[in-house]
Write a structure and sequence with these properties.
Layout (H helix, E strand, L loop, with lengths): L17 E9 L3 E9 L5 E9 L11 E5 L4 E5 L9 E11 L2 E9 L7 E5 L1 E2 L1
Antiparallel strand pairs: 1-6, 1-9, 2-5, 2-7, 3-4, 3-6, 7-8
Length: about 120
């Protein structure tokens, strides 16, 4: 069985305006990504931001995807978001426009020979 492809999460009941992921990584041991869906009725601009474990925001990291249509999905792959190569921290995803919901996937690098995990991003 390939453990790297077997991950699950719970379905969404609704959406929110801000999503939080308490563990985001671009690190020699861990990598992660967030998938965010526009679950509202109109378009949304969706923005990611990354934070060190100390609480400070990572300067210049994250991005905004504009005009995400109803039902559209955005992928925020942490190693491509401008964080340091040894980043272990958190992610905050916000929107303007329609409500959003999302999941976060974390996996150990393949050479670590371990499992991954998926969870719903916390809505506020």
């Amino acid at each position: 069985m390939d453990v790297y492809t077997h991950q699950s999460y719970s379905g969404f009941v609704g959406g929110g305006s801000t999503l939080y992921g308490p563990f985001a990584a671009s690190h020699p041991t861990f990598i992660s990504a967030s998938e965010v869906q526009n679950v509202g009725t109109g378009t949304a601009d969706i923005t990611s931001g990354y934070f060190y474990r100390s609480g400070g925001q990572v300067p210049g990291a994250g991005r905004t995807v504009r005009g995400v249509v109803r039902g559209g999905v955005v992928l925020f792959y942490v190693p491509a978001e401008g964080v340091p190569s040894d980043f272990l921290g958190s992610v905050r995803i916000t929107r303007s426009g329609s409500a959003i919901a999302g999941i976060h996937n974390v996996s150990r690098q393949p050479e670590q020979n371990d499992h991954g995990a998926s969870y719903n991003l916390v809505q506020r």
